[in-house]
Amino acid sequence: MKRKAQTEPTNGTAEPTVRGGVSALERGLRILTAFDQRTSVLTLGGVANRTGLNKSTILRLMVSLEALGFIDRDQEGLYRIGAQAWRVGTLFNSELHLQQLLPPVLDELSVKIDESVSFWIPVMTNPPSRLCIFRAEPQRSVRVHTFIGSQIPLEKGGSTARMMKAYVDPTNRDDDRLRVERVCTTWAERDPELCGVSSPVFGVDGRFVGVLSISAPIARRNRKWLESMKPVILAAAERVTSKLGHDQAR
What is the DSSP letter of 173? Predict the structure, then answer.
């Protein structure tokens, strides 16, 4: 059975958002970010809906993206991410060895708590957002469904967003407590049916890398359980931080 290409619209805008940037480059990169794990195949109309760009502009940009290997197009005219995009994406993981270090930690934690565990990195879009790059799911029929590649604006809220904002803008004094405690919980904030708890992960020299998060349906958990997860997620995040070479005791 052929996979159906998605054509849902998103909130992308057609106008350049980076002051002093190159409009054509920004539009080309916007095309690449239209794809995610849930929507890995798109029609021309789907790309247009997700980026806010007109079809003629997309077609011109696709010529370069295909020629450089960042986009593949099949005989039916459906578009997919190309091998060059994958190669560039792996450089982030290879620099920090995230691919080797994170999945075992997430899998172990998910089995231990029987809930979903994710790792998110900041994406300095306008507005800033968070991108899920690793995910571990429990063996449950009812669970939080988030896909690797999902990108959510920080302004949407949730424990992951709150914790990430504290390090994306370290000058904000309102987040001093989060930076000291290094753990954040939210209840039915971004989604009225979900709760979450998150903790930051750091690399060499204390560089902020991303946020490790636990999420669960509030129909199955209560606030006491959520509080009990604070030392659990904090310990897991500190474990990853230690593996990445940063000593938080210093």
Answer: G
Domain shared by 105 and 196, yes or no: yes
How do beta strands 116-123 and 129-136 pair? antiparallel
Domain that holds residue 29: 23-87
- The residues facing 42 across adjacent strands are 6, 79
Residue 9: pLDDT band (50, 70, 90) is very low
User: What's the pTM value of the predicted model, to 2 decimals?
Assistant: 0.68
- Residue 29, in any domain of the structure: yes
Residue 7 within a domain: no
Together in a domain, 106 and 170: yes
pLDDT 10s digits, 130-173: 999 999 998 877 667 778 888 899 999 999 999 999 999 988 99
The CA distance from 38 to 78, in Å, is 15
d(CA 231, CA 238): 10
